[in-house]
Specification:
Elements lengths: L6 H15 L5 E5 L2 E5 L5 H10 L5 E9 L7 E9 L4 E9 L5 E2 L8 H12 L3 E2 L28 E6 L4 E6 L31
Parallel strand pairs: 2-5, 6-7
Antiparallel strand pairs: 1-2, 3-4, 4-5, 8-9
């Protein structure tokens, strides 16, 4: 295959993958310069195993989700793969809803473990068979999933253990007090005494 691969070459590859997948991959299209495959969520493990072992996509470079709240299957779970030997990328999309888990693919690509935790944390997508599916970016007491399109911008609470009350208490999320950063380069000459300069002998 020539590089960069043409649209026709990628679509031909997609048809070969569909024929070899026995229903694990059902569609192929060309989008944003890459091959985009689609398939049923319950066959994600054999689909990715086929792409890794037979078609040479050795690396998963990303796993994420996209939220379409007006759809019954509101989430696209998107897998981005890389073939080092062919210098090709492709994406594979499956759909699921808020309650139906997608099988974990950490047995096919071990780095999917943390990607799946991130998709669970940010979108609430469940991954069946994951050995440690817990939040990875937000606090353990956090409610909701911040990258869902229906996630409110305010009104959430945080929880903490109150030693005086001897129980867990819920409080409104407090805004962070930001420092007043000065991004002036010291080589340009700050108009104040820099930390450490106060120890230098005055000229």
């Amino acid at each position: 295959m020539s590089w960069p691969a043409t649209e026709d070459q990628l679509l031909t590859l997609g048809e070969k993958i569909i024929q070899a997948s026995h229903g694990a991959v059902t569609g192929a299209s060309y989008a944003f310069g890459d091959l985009t495959l689609t398939g049923p969520a319950d066959k994600i493990v054999p689909a990715l195993t086929l792409l890794r072992d037979r078609f040479g996509f050795q690396q998963m470079i990303d796993l994420t989700a996209v939220d379409y709240p007006d759809r019954a299957l509101r989430f696209d779970v998107v897998y981005h793969l890389l073939s080092l030997t062919q210098n090709l990328r492709l994406r594979l999309k499956v759909q699921t809803d808020e309650d139906t888990p997608v099988d974990t693919v950490s047995g096919v690509y071990p780095n999917a473990n943390w990607y799946e935790r991130e998709a669970f944390d940010m979108y609430g997508v469940f991954f069946d068979g994951h050995d440690d599916l817990r939040r990875i970016l937000t606090d353990y007491g956090f409610h909701g999933h911040p990258l869902r399109k229906d996630f409110p911008m305010s009104g959430y609470v945080e929880l903490r253990y109150d030693d005086e009350l001897k129980r867990v208490v819920y409080e409104p999320v407090k805004s962070v007090e930001y420092r007043n950063w000065d991004f002036q380069s010291p080589w340009e000459g700050a108009d104040y005494v820099l930390p450490g300069d106060d120890k230098a002998e005055a000229k």
